[in-house]
């Protein structure tokens, strides 16, 4: 039996990339995983992949920028699976541009998905977890939220906001037995980083003391730790998974 046997975990933005790796990792630890994404077909495919591997998962489509849909995600999970033990707020997007060229639409889109979406899901899940008097909430931030990045003012602001949200929620929810932490990945191999030029990738690698980029599984391992009983006395923290990029 895994460390999460009998637990129900929701992972937003888990149809692919880091979210998918997290969902698979939690499923391997015994959790029943809800694959939540706006990409319905891909979410169903990921759910089936996990089922075919001998683990348990379902898919629920949700646009987390919509408050009602975020609430529906949590309620439908509770109705179908009986409880909500773990929430991983992973869904995120980028729309990079220089500050002086960034449009209002580019700013709003990133803030709405990354920050408002995290708030919507966290708030809805907290209501269920407070009644249970237990729960683990893990928010996926970024080292960019700690150090900033050229051409990513919207993304950096959203990820910094997630850190503030995490610490405030951790203080409010701790008396109800709910742990709230954040994970801040560095340069991780995903579709998002694949789009970067070779020059940018090389510059990142030179700045990483471990001299390699991270893999989605590196992030998933840390999330699994925060979701498990091993981390019961940890809350309000930001764990960097960055190979030493930001010390």
Q: How would you sum up this structure in a few lines?
A:
This protein is α/β, with parallel strands linked by helices. It contains nine helices and seven strands, in the order βαβαβαβαβααβαααβ. Helix content is 49%, strand content 15%.
Structure explained in plain terms:
- The chain is of the alpha/beta class and 247 residues long.
- The chain is 49% helix and 15% strand.
- Strands 3-2-1-4-5-6-7 form a 7-stranded parallel β-sheet, with helices on both faces.
- Helix 2 (40-52) links the parallel strand 2 and strand 3 (57-61).
- The termini are far apart.
- The mean pLDDT is 96.
Number of helices: 9
Structural class: alpha/beta
Overall tally of structural domains: 1
| Main β-sheet description | 7 strands, parallel
- Give the strand tally: 7
CATH class: Alpha Beta
What proportion of the residues form beta strands (DSSP E)? 15-25%
Which sequence of strands runs across the widest sheet? 3-2-1-4-5-6-7
- The CATH fourth-level homologous superfamily: NAD(P)-binding Rossmann-like Domain
Shape: globular
Mean pLDDT: 96
